[in-house]
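Appendix C reproduces, verbatim, an entry submitted by the partner laboratory led by Prof. M.T., so that reviewers can inspect both the input and the predicted structure.
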Amino acid sequence: MARAMFEYTKTILSKVSFDVNLFCKEVQKALQRLLPYEIEELKIYIESLVSQNPNLNQCLIYLKP
């Protein structure tokens, strides 16, 4: 079940990556919902999205401990 949430989160993040504000909100939601090891995987995924769309760079602050 948790893995499904992780895949769903990745789908949502890719769909809202056109809008920085929406993307940041979804990142915050994901950090509340996902398990710690999934958050580590999500960081890698988000960094790949940021490399494609540098505007999303400001959302990385939510991923810092």
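The mean pLDDT is 92. Additional entries are available on request from the coordinating office.
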